[in-house]
Write a structure and sequence with these properties.
By secondary structure, the protein is an alpha+beta fold. The protein has seven domains: 90 residues, no CATH class; 142 residues, Dna Ligase, domain 1; 100 residues, no CATH class; 244 residues, no CATH class; 135 residues, Rossmann fold; 40 residues; 89 residues, no CATH class. Helices cover 32% and strands 24% of the residues. A hairpin with a 4-residue loop joins strand 5 and strand 6. The longest helix has 20 residues. The chain is flat and about 115 Å long.
Length: 1049
């Protein structure tokens, strides 16, 4: 094997030993400070060698490390940068107090309380934390030791945040403005003394002030969980750091593919393939062809012994008649980051070689494209896997949070860290089929539902102890504390007979709300019109409703008082809220709605587990309203040119992305905008509503003046002894917050919006007047072909989310071509298929499912579809002409009437046939035929009417065969007749033929009828058809329809 050193090709090994030339040139490269190839450290480590920067010579690696460790112990302040590099290579860290070295794999989960650990730092806590790290310049990061945030009043660290921490950030804000982005990190320890790291990259927006922009982003990092729990309430001490994030803009240098231990990484797989083909070839010409390729490849290996420049690959493909694809380690993440080189000599190359660029100047031949996903149980295993990958010299993307690798994306394997939270969520979501109930961010329905989300917060009611700083502008979610006010109420007797009551797991026990009626799933239709209240209250389905003109005149004073803190006029509300308003005699107008399907959700027992005192279900609810537009992948910055290549390919593929380098952590992060963002705000909105309704239903039983404060799902009650608190079935008494113990909570500064809720979104909506209709989960549209059944659905401005199903692939494709606003289109059999991936694709679509040509669906299949609708909460609208069109291919002994009787809601209001709107004779004939069919007239009577009364032409087969054109349509009732016609007409049409597709491919669907001068792969020549094979096909103007009337039933 050879390598390029000092611009000279150098042989590394000879007779399994390092060559003298290699050692001499490598030593010169180290002394001169030249670039060292990435494979060199691996080779030296294998040979137990290391370069000594002091003596400028190679030393025994083991002895050298032992000497340097002894030096570090005795001279901690004089440690060289090369020593720190060495410790990193060996995964060693030095403990200052014990003067001992610890392996990083163990240290990453080190539990001693007097140390703080981040990904790259170990520092002893001190009052000023001056010695956070030795290696990096102080301007690259700033740190602050947080330990006195309990001095104001017991556990009120929010005061500390809004005073001390905010001032610290404000003082350095001018410096921050000079940067494009910074990383804010909180490092602390949990109750088990394990390190916990919270990080966020914050882009600096110079168009916003400190308060409106930067500080809001920083402040939100300190809160976690759906209830907004503050991080500092769970930990005693923490270190806060701000790290400089430098834009990563390294210029990409064209790679020369060679870097490998034993063989040329690019040409070796090609040579092996060509030699194998040559040896297996039976024909002489084939053997010569592949022998020529072998010789060419060997010649290329000599020519490009210093590496193949990537701009020469196309020439290689053309010369060898092969195709090449080169991906990188993020190709699986994005699905399109491949460089493709196709031979221009042939349509397809002799062989398509696929490579992965895993380090600079190196390719790995990809034998299998499938990526195996392996779940890893412990962080220690993930750390070990990453270390092994790094030792092999590969640069792979990963994501690290709180000091732990969550996933690592290797070449053929993706490693994912399992966690109790992840496993519990997967179990819960699968049990409730929630993988099929996500809304896409940015759609009109998403905007409406996000506007409906009301998050219960803390607000004062009759709290005489609360502060009221009129001159101070507050964020609605701010919680602070006023020391002067606290000192004012020194008489603890003032707090006697105050009790606090808390809902028992309010988010978990949402079904205990007196107004519980399921959830609105799969929202699909938006109505802007007056909607009768009785229709809403009696509906079996669920939705969100826009109310206006709220009237409290008939409600009691206390009902009016508390509901005004929750309800905002002219806004969308979940349906249970409307029932509560009606129950409390609060009237209103309903002027709009989002229709969905009622479904039930139940948290599993495992979701009651906790992470740092926050229940899984609470974290999950908060995550459902999260809409992060950007995602992030991370790399260790040891292979900068490869990362530059990856970053370049991501941007060239059209993905919005930015790259940052954290000098402090020696890490490069690429933030990219997601193609689509999904959320479940419709589910969170209902859970928040049930929590609030349970609270409002309870507190309206007390005197208004005795309710001091609402706090999300809890309340403080004065004169509690006067009430029968046993009636609070959903609540549990919290004695640790009673009487004088409630002082610090009642004195805290809460949101002064005077509302019990805050809104997370307020999107501007596109309000279009629409026709009112009731909300039904299953409905059947009846009518003849041409009355506009499909048109009425796909051109209805109210139905915003819809998918299409029919009995044939060709009809599904036609629907996509005719209507551009369809989420998905496929045969209805995909829902019934044993292949779960086909069903998954349909179920993951948002909105209602329009099932066309329902006359083709058997009785049993309709029942199956009803079951799917119920199980997965899908609105299904069937359309067809059951009883007037041909019977289903599957004969299960059921009549058309039996199938019709399955549908409780039928709509036959569409009467005008638009296909024959300008042809009165055709229109009258169709109406009369339908009447005769209804009257159970026989086929011969209908034919007699059409021929004698309507003067439709009746001709013999000889005349038909003589006059039929290739684009006319010929139908008969028997396959034996069709076969005779096919043989006869095949002789008639010689220039172009008519084919029927029997297989679906990228261009055509099974059942498509194609006229072509050459046979289409997967088709059969066909000129005559049964009605089953052409059902749903439209005959174009100018073409004739011929019907063989023999043996018609």
């Amino acid at each position: 094997m050879s390598i390029l050193l000092n611009n000279k090709k150098t042989t590394i090994y000879r007779n399994n030993s390092l060559t003298k030339t290699f050692k001499r040139r490598l030593l010169r490269a180290y002394k001169d400070g030249s670039d060292i190839p990435s494979s060199i450290p691996i080779i030296l480590k294998k040979e137990n060698m290391i370069f000594n920067p002091t003596t400028k010579r190679f030393n025994n690696r083991t002895r050298y490390i032992k000497q340097r460790k002894k030096f570090i112990k005795n001279n901690i302040q004089d440690v060289l940068s090369s020593d720190l590099d060495l410790l990193e290579q060996e995964n060693l860290y030095f403990k200052v107090d014990t003067k001992r070295f610890v392996k990083r794999s163990r240290l990453s989960f080190y539990t001693k309380k007097n140390y703080i650990l981040s990904d790259f730092i170990l520092s002893k806590q001190s009052e000023t934390v001056q010695q956070m790290i030795y290696k990096y310049p102080v301007e690259d990061h700033r740190s602050f030791f947080m330990e006195d945030y309990n001095v104001y009043a017991d556990d009120m660290p929010n005061v500390y945040l809004d005073t001390t921490i905010k001032s610290w950030f404000r003082d350095m804000y001018d410096d921050i403005l000079s940067l494009e982005s910074v990383q804010v990190t909180i490092i602390t320890t949990n109750q088990n003394n394990n390190n916990v790291v919270f990080k966020r990259i914050i882009n600096v927006n110079t168009n916003k002030t400190f308060n409106t922009g930067f500080w809001n982003d920083v402040r939100s990092l300190f809160y976690t969980g759906s209830a907004g729990d503050m991080i500092l309430t769970h930990y005693e001490t923490a270190v806060l750091m701000v790290s400089k994030m430098l834009p990563f803009n390294d210029a990409y240098i064209i790679q020369n593919y060679l870097d490998s231990i034993n063989e040329h990484c690019f040409f070796a797989p090609i040579l092996n393939w060509a030699m194998n083909c040559r040896d297996k070839a039976k024909g002489l010409s084939t053997k010569r062809k592949y022998n020529s390729i072998v010789n060419k490849v060997k010649n290329y290996i000599t020519i490009y012994e210093d590496g193949l420049p990537e701009n020469k690959i196309q020439d290689i493909c053309d010369d060898l008649s092969i195709d090449i694809s080169i991906g990188n380690t993020v190709s699986k993440i994005f699905g399109k980051q491949y460089a493709h080189f196709k031979t221009t000599k042939k349509k397809y190359g002799l062989k398509h070689f696929k490579f992965i660029n895993t380090r600079n100047n190196h390719l790995e031949y990809l034998v299998c494209e499938n990526q195996e996903v392996i779940n890893i149980e412990t962080p220690e295993e993930m750390e070990s896997i990453m270390q092994n990958i790094t030792n092999l010299g590969r640069t792979v993307p990963f994501y690290k949070s709180n000091g732990v690798y969550l996933w690592i994306n290797d070449v053929s394997t993706k490693y994912q860290l399992n966690s109790e939270y992840k496993k519990s969520v997967e179990e819960f979501e699968k049990l409730n089929h929630l993988q099929y109930h996500k809304l896409e961010e940015g759609t009109e329905i998403s905007n409406i539902i996000q506007n409906s989300v009301r998050i219960p917060v803390s607000c004062d009611v009759n709290n005489i102890f609360s502060i009221d700083d009129e001159d101070e502008e507050l964020c609605p979610l701010d919680v602070g504390f006023n020391q002067m006010k606290y000192n004012q109420f020194t008489n603890d007797k003032l707090f006697n007979n105050i009790k606090m009551f808390d809902q028992q797991k309010s988010f978990y026990n949402f079904d205990k709300c007196p107004y519980y009626n399921g959830f609105c799933l799969n929202p699909h239709t938006v109505i802007y019109n007056n909607i009768p209240l009785e229709d809403v209250l009696s509906s079996k389905e669920q939705g969100f409703y826009k109310i206006d003109n709220i009237d409290y005149s008939k409600a009691s004073n206390i009902d009016s008082f508390f509901f005004k803190k929750y309800i905002v006029n002219d806004s969308f509300l979940p349906q249970p809220v409307l029932k509560a308003l009606h129950n409390h005699k609060i009237s209103f107008d309903i002027v709009g709605a989002v229709y969905g399907v009622k479904g039930n959700i139940k948290f599993t027992k495992n979701m009651t587990q906790k992470i740092d005192k926050v229940p899984f279900y609470s974290i999950w609810v908060g995550n459902q309203i999260s809409c992060k537009q950007f995602s992030s992948i991370q790399f260790n910055n040891n292979d900068r040119n490869l990362i530059s290549s990856i970053y370049k390919q991501i941007r060239e593929s059209g993905v919005t992305a930015k790259a940052y380098e954290n000098v402090y952590e020696k890490k490069i992060s690429i933030e990219y905008k997601k193609e689509k963002v999904f959320h479940r705000a419709h589910i969170a909105s209902y859970i928040y509503a049930y929590t609030a309704l349970s609270m409002l239903e309870m507190i309206t039983q007390f005197k208004q003046e005795d309710v001091l404060k609402l706090n999300v799902d809890a309340f403080y009650l004065k004169n509690a002894d006067q009430y029968n608190v046993n009636c609070l079935a959903m609540y549990e008494h919290e004695p640790d917050r009673d009487n004088e113990k409630s002082k610090k909570y009642l004195l805290s500064k809460c949101n002064h919006s005077e509302n019990y809720i805050v809104f997370k979104w307020w999107h501007k909506l596109n309000i279009i007047k629409t026709k009112y209709r009731k909300n039904h989960r299953i409905k059947l549209l009846l009518g003849a072909g041409g009355v506009g059944k499909s048109y009425s659905i796909f051109n209805d401005p109210a139905i915003l989310e819809k998918s299409y199903c029919a009995h044939a692939n060709r009809l599904s494709r036609y629907a996509v071509e005719d209507y551009k606003n369809i989420n998905h289109s496929c045969p209805f059999q995909h829902l019934l298929a044993n292949k779960s991936h086909l069903q998954d694709i349909v179920l993951k679509q948002q909105g209602l499912l329009f099932i066309d040509e329902a006359s083709f669906i058997s009785y049993g299949q309709i029942l199956q579809l009803f079951h799917i609708s119920q199980k997965y909460s899908i609105c299904m609208i069937f359309a067809g002409d059951i009883g007037f069109q041909t019977a289903p291919p599957i004969n299960d002994g059921k009549t058309a009437k039996d199938r019709l009787n399955l549908f409780k809601i039928k709509d036959d209001s569409l009467k005008i046939n638009y296909r024959f709107k300008d042809d009165k004779a055709h229109n009258d004939a169709i109406l009369q035929v339908r009447k005769m069919m209804t009257d159970k007239k026989k086929s011969k009577d209908i034919l007699k009417y059409l021929i004698h009364d309507q003067k439709y032409k009746c001709i013999n087969s000889y005349y038909m065969i003589k006059n039929i054109k290739i684009d006319d349509t010929l139908l008969s009732s028997r396959h034996k007749f069709n076969e005779l016609y096919d043989r006869t007409l095949s002789k008639k049409f010689t220039n172009k033929k008519k084919y029927m597709m029997k297989k679906t491919n990228a261009k055509y669907s099974n059942g498509d009828i194609i006229i072509s001068d050459q046979k289409i792969s997967g088709s059969v020549e066909r000129y005559a058809f049964t009605i089953h094979s052409t059902q749903g096909t439209t005959i174009k103007d100018g073409n004739n329809l011929y019907i063989d009337t023999r043996e018609l039933k």
